[in-house]
């Protein structure tokens, strides 16, 4: 299956910000549960352990074999509308923002990664497209395992992200998120 990239890169004050939107024909509370409850998260990306009231949890990517458990800081949690976290990726920390809005039975999820290193957009963008499509499949009864990163996301979507305004023309080659 050939998938079309939907993400965009916005630049403000010299900083790039990745934005990807997905829509769900579901109540906002249901989509909120899909992005915050460990069992629901585990169906499409990973799971967390710990006490979120402490402001930190441990996150393990289940969508990738052998992924290490990493730290995750909860910067803002406003159920069921906004979740802002910082996740450890190796030695780096990435800010990730998930905003939900419901209208006429449709919940819109706006995912953003502010302060994106634009030279990494050709791999990070396809990576988040992949994970968000897994979320859609998990929540609509689709086959999450049928979503193939290597075939449909990277390198298939890399050129879309390299060509976006604000992205350095010498984006680095590399694997997904």
Write up what this structure looks like:
By secondary structure, the protein is an alpha+beta fold. The protein has a single domain, classed as START domain (Alpha-D-Glucose-1,6-Bisphosphate, Chain A, domain 4, 2-Layer Sandwich). Helices cover about 25% and strands about 35% of the residues. The chain is built from five helices and eight strands; from the N terminus they run E-E-H-H-E-E-E-E-E-E-H-H-H. It has an eight-stranded antiparallel beta sheet with strand order 1-2-8-7-6-5-4-3. The longest helix has 20 residues, at about 120-140. The chain is globular. Mean pLDDT is about 90; it is low at about 170-175. Belongs to the AHA1 family. InterPro entries: ASHA1/2-like_C, START-like_dom_sf. This is Activator of Hsp90 ATPase homologue 1/2-like C-terminal domain-containing protein.
What labels describe this entry?
about 180 residues; alpha+beta; Alpha-D-Glucose-1,6-Bisphosphate, Chain A, domain 4; 5 helices; disordered C terminus
Topology at a glance:
Layout: E1 8-12, E2 15-24, H1 28-36, H2 38-42, E3 46-49, E4 56-61, E5 69-78, E6 82-89, E7 92-103, E8 106-116, H3 121-140, H4 149-152, H5 158-162
Antiparallel strand pairs: 1-2, 2-8, 3-4, 4-5, 5-6, 6-7, 7-8
Q: What's a concise summary of this model?
A:
The chain has 177 residues and is α+β, with helices and mostly antiparallel strands. The chain has helices at residues 28-36, 38-42, 121-140, 149-152, 158-162, and strands spanning 8-12, 15-24, 46-49, 56-61, 69-78, 82-89, 92-103, 106-116.
């Amino acid at each position: 299956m050939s998938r079309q990239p939907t993400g965009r890169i916005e630049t403000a004050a010299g900083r790039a910000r990745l934005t990807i939107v997905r829509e769900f024909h579901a109540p906002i509370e249901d989509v909120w549960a899909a992005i915050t409850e460990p069992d629901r998260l585990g169906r499409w990306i990973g799971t967390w352990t710990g006490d979120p009231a402490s402001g930190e949890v441990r996150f393990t990517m289940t969508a990738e074999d052998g992924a290490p458990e990493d730290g995750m800081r909860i910067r803002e949690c406003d159920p069921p509308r906004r979740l802002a976290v910082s996740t450890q990726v190796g030695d780096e920390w990435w800010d990730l923002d998930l905003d939900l809005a419901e209208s006429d039975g449709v919940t819109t999820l706006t995912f953003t990664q502010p302060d994106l290193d634009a030279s990494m957009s050709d791999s990070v963008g396809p990576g988040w497209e992949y994970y968000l499509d897994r979320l859609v499949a998990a929540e609509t009864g689709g086959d999450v395992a049928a979503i193939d990163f290597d075939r449909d996301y990277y390198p298939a979507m890399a050129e879309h992200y390299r060509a976006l305004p604000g992205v350095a023309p010498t984006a680095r080659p590399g694997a997904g998120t």
